[in-house]
Known about the structure:
By secondary structure, the chain is mostly helical. It has 19 helices and nine strands. It folds into two domains: 195 residues, Orthogonal Bundle (Fumarase C, Chain B, domain 1); 275 residues, Fumarase C, Chain A, domain 2, CATH 1.20.200. The protein is 56% helix and 6% strand. Helix 1 links the parallel strand 1 and strand 2. The longest helix is centred in the middle third of the chain and has 32 residues. The protein starts with a strand and ends with a helix.
Amino acid sequence: MTIEINGKNLSIDILVNVARYNAKVALSKDSIEKIKKCREMVEDKISNGEIMYGINTGIGEFSETVLSPDQIKDFQKYLIYNHAAGIGDASPTDHVRAAMLSRINVHAKGMSGCRLIITQTLIEMINKGVTPYVCEKGSVGACGDLAPMSQIALVLLGEGKAYYENELLEGKDAMEKAGIFIPGLEARDGLSVINGSNFLTSMSGLFIFDCIRWFKQAKIAAAMSMDALLANLGPLNELIHTSRGFVGAVKSAEVLRSVLKNGDLINGTLDTKVQDAYSLRSTPQVIGAAIDLLDYCLKQVEIELNGVGDNPIFFTDKKLQLSGANFQGTPVSLPLDTLGASVTMVSVLSERRLNRLNNPALSNGLPPFLTKGAGMFSGLMLSQYTADMQIVEQRILSTPASIQSIPAAADQEDFVSMGMNTALKNFQILDNAYGVLGIEFMAAAQGLDFRNHKFGDGVSIAFEEIRKCVDFLDVDRPLYADHNTMKELVKSCKILDKVELSLGNFY
Length: 507
């Protein structure tokens, strides 16, 4: 199935389907007409000698420099050369494809002023699997993600590098092998490709998608630990959470009850403490706060995915172009900084439950460090060390990037969002979160092996999935392989898929 792009329908789910699962896309007929009409307006204004930023002027500090007619076309080429100034490792393919789709959707609104062939070529590159080589670092997230987007634009010139059929080629060769015409760049074309925060926004969309699935698994792990620790499940009562009114907490308590359903613990047949520690008792409130934030972040990112991130913006119905700052990445970087921190927060909660599973003074009868040979064996003692190390790194990375502006371009660009730093560090935070949660899953399964009661339906499913991958720790063995296996299991979402297949989808 081909997904139609029209400038207003780009969701995170579509972004993921195209970026990761190679769904095909096409421009709507309406968008084709809008792009053509806008281009006609731009060409008329150029012919009439009107001064327009980035078309017949320089950019940034050079915006007051007016270009001669002979310079206008070459300026776009040199603009891309100058801005293709990134550094570091190659961005993952899905990040680049997502950024290209996001930029196509901006063009689809018919307010960017580029030639139709530019947008159509980007679509053809997505559909035929030509993915430009883009350095991860270089964007400050204002005036657009200029450095990474310029490496995409280089391929439109038949330059730069690109991946095609799992091979890194010269841009020209990749396009020729895929049978894609190289359009070159004329007036406005280059700036229309790079002048929005599409890279950091698209990365943030992918991050949100992954966060949704990670938070779901955090609830499953919490339920497993509750079952293993014989937690008092009274704090999951719906009345507690509806009385306060936070939607995320209500949803989280509902999911925990569902995963624990039909178990002896939730059915009240086991003795429990009157009140548990906060890491058990306040799990719905803490994860719920993260879920509420996640909903806000999703809204902000989808607004940006369907908004106009350009400078100038062309209003064809008014025959008007306006310069502004819709390239500014702060509306995304600010909430996404907080979302990254919320992943760290929920990871801390996970580690605190891991601590209770390991600590015989807190575990409600489980053996020290979840080993039956304590003293001779150390069980999961060092697993907690590994979780703690990752959390400290998460905490370091949770420092907001959106407040770290450093002025650039001779102070013409004197406040920038640093949103690419937000996007990059969020994926590092999440990578650690997979590891932390994997260790809690492993410890909870180990704890359940020492219990004889009937577990909740979802708990039993998760336990069985874990035991397919990691054996009960009977005697000590090197645990790094188990840790990495559990990390990949969480990342794959196999536990989540199996639980949702049985219990239904949840949030």
